[in-house]
Specification:
- Chain A: GO terms for molecular function: phosphorelay sensor kinase activity.
- Chain A: This is histidine kinase.
- Chain A: It is found in: Membrane.
- Chain A: Its EC number is 2.7.13.3.
- The complex is a heterodimer of chains A (461) and B (357).
- With 461 residues, chain A is of the alpha+beta class.
- Chain A has 3 domains: 154 residues, Beta-Lactamase; 68 residues, no CATH class; 148 residues, Heat Shock Protein 90 (2-Layer Sandwich).
- Chain A is built from 9 helices and 14 strands.
- Chain A has a 5-stranded antiparallel beta sheet.
- The radius of gyration of chain A is 51 Å and the shape is rod-shaped.
- Chain B has 2 domains: 149 residues, 3-Layer(aba) Sandwich (D-Maltodextrin-Binding Protein, domain 2); 146 residues, Periplasmic binding protein-like II (D-Maltodextrin-Binding Protein, domain 2).
- In chain B, helix 2 packs across helix 13 and helix 12 packs across helix 13.
- The N terminus of chain B is likely disordered.
- The chains are: A alpha+beta (461), B alpha/beta (357).
Chain lengths: 461, 357
Amino acid sequence: MAVQHSLRQRLLVSMAAGFAIILVSIAIGIWSYARDAANHSYDRLLSGAAFAILERTLVTPNGPGVEIPYSALEMIGLAESDRVFYRIFAADGTTLTGSESLPVPDQYRPTDQPVFFDTRYSGEDVRFLLQGRFLAGAGYGDWVVVQIGQTRIARDAFAREMMINAIALLLFVTVIGLGFVWFGINRALSPLIGIERQLRHREPTDFSQILITPPREVASLTRSINGLILRHKKSLDNAQAFIADVAHQTRTSLGALHGLLESASRQPDAEQRQVRIAQAEEQAERTIRLTNQLLSHAMIIHRADNTPLERKVLIDVIRAVFGDIIRDYLKYDTDFSIESDGEPDTHTYVMLDEIGIREALRNLIDNAIKHGAAPHKIDIVVRSSGSHCHLIVDDNGPGIEGAKHASVLQRFSSLSTGTGLGLAIVKAVADRHGADLNLAQSPNGGLRVEMVFPVVGGAEE
Amino acid sequence: MTMPRGNILSACMRVLIAIFVAMGASVWGTQASARVQVHVWSATDTSAVEPFIKVFEARYPDIDVVYSEFNTSELYQVVMYNIDNPKMEADVIISPAMDLQVKLVNEGLAYRFEPENADAIPGWAQWRNELYGFSFEPAALVYNKKAFAGLKNPVSHTDLSNLVRDNPELFSGKIGTYNIRQSGIGYFFATQDAIQNNQTSRLTESFGRAGAKLYCCSSEILDRIATGELVLGYNVIGSYAIAAAEKNPDIGVYFLRDYTITMSRTAFVPKTSQAKYQAQLFIDFLLSRDGQQVLADNSSLIPINQNVETVLTPHLENIPVFRVKLGIGLLGFQDELKKNSFLEDWESSILWSGGQR
């Protein structure tokens, strides 16, 4: 048996995988958003400080000057744990005040728009702002630029906190979502569980239908199970009827034999006794035949369940089988003929059970000899017609009326003195091969039995 | 002479073992007897910290504290000058000038660590897990009690400038305060005054008119108050003032009622320290309840832990303390241009009429 799958597990795993993909992509999005938001917030502090400082730049008789307002640094200090670096320089690069070594991008040209950039400075990641102001007056006219740098500690903490909160919320939603999935799966699977429960708690003799209104997805499954139950019940019924029939037939047959023997032993007249014994012998023979046929029938049914069919040419099989059984009929005055209308070189293959075919043929010949009068004439014809292959057995016995064709195929439905099993066996063999069985009037005046086999694989070799 | 084989082998073994034992002993020996030196560079009167250092050394017998005293500005300059020098000997740097300490830490000089006892220190007195304040020191007015007899104590800074203006004969040449160009802590107090009070320049001018004298250190002012050479000392470190007043009954200590600037002496471990672990132990003990108690009981420093009873505790209800918060804001007056213009303004006020440097 293959590895068992759990629908529930499959659904849950695929849902969890889906959630994980969504979670990861959202997390990536949130991270970049959180970083932007953190930069945005803290950049405003830097901008505010830069404005406050630029406002206090002025032209003095000695050139540009600046008085850093106390509030500017206080403002940046709102990011409590961050270090701050600043420098105010003239357009020619002369530092007015602050740390001279602060990095400035090569392509920077003074502008009154703030320019932000991140870089490594003094052993930490630092966010820098550059903003200029054009100063004019008293013989001076040029740019003054303020540069402020702040380490990223507060920004990163802010972004991390946003990130953690968002992820926590997402995880919460995911868990809730998976909870719903679990609930949904269980609800969806509950009809299956209902079916399982109904079947498990069932008595062995209970063949009632599964009583459940299935959802569309499992309706056909339920129908199939119900069909199976029905077929199983029918076959069990058949088997029971068969066993009852067999018991009845055997008992009747043995009862008759016993009756004959008893009456023979009580018969004082030797001649009469001889007649009774002959009758008993006949009855014994019939009983043996009955038993053989019952076993043969049982064997056919059994083989149908256990032995695979083999791909063979029908006429070859017929010839071989006929060779086996012809010896049993040598004592009867019988004229046999076997003919095949197919080309000798083309082989038409049919899926066959050789033993089954033998039993069918034997029963047909038995019937013909038993019901007909000598001299017997039995013609066996194999005819192929495209997709089908016909096996026809004609005899010159009394034949069977058309109205009774259906009923004679039933078990124990002999029209006269037969066991009533012969044609039932033929029918079982036909069923086993998926072949149609037709009864008709034979051109010889007797019964024609025709089995129509489906051809497989076309011609070969 | 021949020796049995076994004897030769065992003799070799014995020598080898002896060598191993000797090596082991020397390794263990150095470990056992190694006394680690912790160099404390500090702008604090040696006498004020000595008792604490003794208790610390008693508690950690393996640690030797080597204490060097500096003026606040000198200390800043030495450390700044050695900013990239891995051979700088300092393991702990202590200064009352919070702005200079913040500037050093902002340069990335400090080693980051979390002392076990950091929680006991209020937030305004620590920064970045690098700089830790351990004392609570309001700026005090110090006066000579005899000379002040009969005068009404000023309530505010404005009262004080009026008092000086109204009593020129008493105060002339007898007011002492820091030379803020030389003293980092003096500059720190002066700038905090300027931030707190827009009338500060008036007070400075009245000091200038009264011919105030400028000193490098609290102790020099206190000594002169004691002798009566000075009548009034302005912005003297409160802990030193209270200690001096306890020794000398002529010295009075007073805290103005409008605001009293309060600083905390701060310590950090420089990144270049060769004995970071021991330096951390030093600072951790400084912040601990026990260490704070030692400061309260055995030294003139006033501990920052408010649960420790100090000489200041009875005054605290009346003093409107303005706690200066450690942080980037303190860099404002450390800007070179700003510092120069502040000093120029201040000097032009204080030296207005023949004041002395």
